[in-house]
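Question: what's this shape?

___
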Amino acid sequence: MLIDKVIEKCRELDSCLIVGIDPVFEKLPEDVRSAALKKYGETETAFASAFVSFGQSVIDAVEGISCIVKPQLAYFEAFGAAGVGAYAEIVRYAKLKGFFVIADAKRGDIGSTSAAYARAFLGDSSLSADFVTVNPYLGSDCINEFLKLVDERDKGIFILVKTSNQSSSELQDLEVGGKKIYEILGVRVNEAARARTGKYGYSQVGAVVGATYPGELATLRSKMECTPFLVPGYGAQGGTAADIAAAFDAQGLGAYINSSRGIIYAKDEGAGYADAMRRAAIKARDDIRTIGR
């Protein structure tokens, strides 16, 4: 079962760090940008080529420190077909190197459209990853289409429950019948997770819960005993090791902590960008180790 393989690989590395690949062309190393522009001019192909080169460097740099990468689709889609092709190449390369891949696509629509999204990101296409993030706003007919491929193809999803952005409370914290929407959603996600648990008690139906809301994180962990958490907001967004402690169970399981900008754009005096990324990843991994027990 996929989630068991993830747990075992993370135990082998003693790391539950996810490295987010969020490429912004202007922030890439100068040599990566200049090489792409020299070859292709200022075109979408140049930007996509730079993203592939940089994304592969990220994967190489964090190998052995993390076993999960999370490319964010928006940064690739901004450059059209060439950008989507770059995403597909990074997925292919990550799988070749033995990483699990989370497609951070945040898809979700009516049933028929969700079925197509599920095929794109969990099926046989070049975009297919191990997990995909899903927006549940349209309800069960949206989620059920993803669950079909979770069951049929041994794939996984992370459903947005309590996100890390500042304005998440505008909708997610509204109360219905005395309970907040994120709590209601969390219970429903856990019901789907409970029906699909592996040998370690966790499911490949997971939830996105932000490190920037440690109180809500603790509340949801108490209600979602079968659900693994993808935890964004650690590092550059301000979340600390203390903030994410409640995401883990007593055995140190149940949470995967994402860091994107804090690793891929790390600077280290006297080090090249690949070495700087690796050192930042080690620092994040070791910081998380202090509480993930």
Summary: Strands lie at 17-21, 68-71, 100-107, 131-134, 156-162, 175-176, 179-180, 205-209, 229-231, 255-259. The chain has a mean pLDDT of 94. The chain is about 50% helix and 15% strand.
